[in-house]
């Protein structure tokens, strides 16, 4: 049950939606509401004003130009994985949208809300009763992380399935904060993750994402591991990409749900590019190296239903993901 009452506002343009946030104290934007409404019901969020973006039509567009595609923040996950052009051009993104949550949530949940979803923790995503004997943690304005009491920051995990796919694709986020500007998607996610551990909200509206086309010689893939295939947050997800043209060869491996922010296996990516001429001989070493880089960079915490041991066991799937990536690079070359 939602205990705190709030005003529900439905602006129809971007500037008006932005003005509402300035004008109305303690207000929050709402996309499809699939992530935010459960937090309201748990009394974890108590805004005075909820600004729905449902009627802002320019946030619902998918538009192509000569260099890339723009996907509005209010485009639903279903619309993404049913879009033929996205399936063909950015397979990993379509796969990520297809694997998030359940059909009902994908029909309502948006790409913007997915990336800006709250980080989750077994001490935070609980009813008020459950939390009543615990000191408030960083995420609700307190000064402790119950997962790691000595930590100076919140260690809640970020489970977005869409984020690793976008991070693998050189995406820029378009944000509106009185004027329209573009920032890299990694900057957007980093600032979201930091603020989200501190009870801070954004003042900007996320307008959408601009994804530059990949060269013809490319391959992208998204994989997700979860307890139930039908509906579950990821135990781990992996987005991989390889692309090449005359000037440039790019390998990307992004792993999500194993730390507060998706991890890029940069050292493994560099190793792949340095060994392009003898990948067949080096592939086992590269895969093992990826596993050790992932283990080193992950920041696991206790989760409901998944032990740290099970989670760490899931890391082994990186071996196959890297093997698949290398196989495809060999085919492309
Ligand atoms: C049972 C369940 C299972 C789930 N499983 C998964 C899963 O497997 N994988 C996964 O990735 N997610 C999962 N989710 C999380 C979530 O529902 C989805 O990620 C969904 O895409 C969120 O989109 P939304 O539009 O509903 O977000 P909302 O709830 O509307 O918003 C989420 C946050 O984003 C902000 N926001 C939204 N749009 C904008 C905008 N345009 N500008 C500025 N701020 C904005 C809101 O203020 C809010 O803080 C699950 C949720 C539930 C309840």
Short structural summary:
This protein has helices at 14-23, 36-41, 77-81, 84-89, 91-99, 103-108, 111-115, 128-131, 162-167, 185-196, 266-274, 279-297, 308-314, 317-332, and strands spanning 7-9, 27-30, 49-52, 62-64, 68-72, 172-176, 180-184, 205-212, 217-225, 236-244, 249-256, 263-264.
List the helices and strands and how they pair.
Layout: E1 7-9, H1 14-23, E2 27-30, H2 36-41, E3 49-52, E4 62-64, E5 68-72, H3 77-81, H4 84-89, H5 91-99, H6 103-108, H7 111-115, H8 128-131, H9 162-167, E6 172-176, E7 180-184, H10 185-196, E8 205-212, E9 217-225, E10 236-244, E11 249-256, E12 263-264, H11 266-274, H12 279-297, H13 308-314, H14 317-332
Parallel strand pairs: 1-3, 2-3
Antiparallel strand pairs: 4-5, 5-8, 6-7, 6-8, 9-10, 10-11, 11-12
The protein binds flavin-adenine dinucleotide.
What would you say this structure looks like, in words?
The chain is globular and about 65 Å long. α11 runs antiparallel to α12 and α12 runs antiparallel to α14. The chain has 14 helices and 12 strands. It is an alpha+beta fold and 333 residues long. The protein has a 5-stranded antiparallel sheet. β4 and β5 form a beta hairpin. It has 2 domains: 55 residues, Uridine Diphospho-n-acetylenolpyruvylglucosamine Reductase, domain 2 (2-Layer Sandwich); 241 residues, Uridine Diphospho-n-acetylenolpyruvylglucosamine Reductase, domain 3 (2-Layer Sandwich). Bound molecules: flavin-adenine dinucleotide (FAD).
